[in-house]
Fold:
Amino acid sequence: MEPIRTVDDLEARLSEPTPGLLETFGKLSGGIAVLGVGGKMGPTLACMARRALDQLGRRDPVVGVARFTAGNLPAQLRQHGVEPITCNLLEREAVRQLPDLPNIIFMAGQKFGTSETPELTWAMNTLAPAYVAEKYRQSRIVAFSTGCVYPLSPIASGGAREEDELCPPGDYANSCVGRERIFTFFSNQNRTQVALVRLNYAIDLRYGILVDVAHKVWRGEPVDVTMGYVNIIWQRDANAQAIECLAHAASPPFCINVTGAETVSIRTLANRFGELFDRPAQIIGTEAPTAWLSNASKAHKLFGPPSSGVDQLVVWTADWVRHGGVTLGKPTHFEVRDGKF
Structure:
């Protein structure tokens, strides 16, 4: 496929509806609210929903909710047909004033900074879900979670499955278990239809594990391979699968791992970027026998394989870095093994 050279092209590709998403929206009625739209994935997910409804000839509203504390995201969302609404999801009364819509994507949460202010992480990852679940008890809710709710898995295991025990290390991961427990409580109490999406590492050329590794190789910095293996998925595929989960929401909640099919070696990624950049990768550390890995066979059976594989994503990322493509300046810290973010 053609390289991606501009932010406009990147966002157009990340928000392009998949055939499966169009089929899903054909079965669902009403509008959709994306809560936490200001995060890394929120804008392209909201725009994908808007584009899908437009292609189906539907004018159901797509609403994007966030605090919008900086930047011009509200204007960008309006330009793409998404209605921005300013709201702090930690304010219960403000949440109660949000519009009633039948389809909710919950993307809000906090990860980085947990070590300094764990109480804020716990509030954001458990109180906000409680207020949202209370408000939208009659709606379908897809709530983003993380593969970090599982403990580290042996590399040869193929990754954690949805039925595995949730007993991760660290405040962040445990607060994410708390988020799932809150949504499960309200789902069971009110018969709210909920899907919990355990995502492992969505890839956007401005952010993600591939960007982290590529920039280290490009700058001649060492790449630590102690956390030796990861799962990744193109953000377009993650967006589409998350929205498609609206059709699978249930009570008790439907749980699903969303990521790629491959267990990806950090060492192999670094060396491949070295080949593409024509400079050797500087490797440090030795691969640990465990990593945060998820088995996404359930998602692949439901939604099909991701549209873009690892090789394509690596080539796109290398080209983006080589040509000075913008980044969000937010490292993933995928190397962390103790859960302290």
User: Anything to note?
Assistant: The mean pLDDT is 94. The chain has twelve helices and 15 strands.
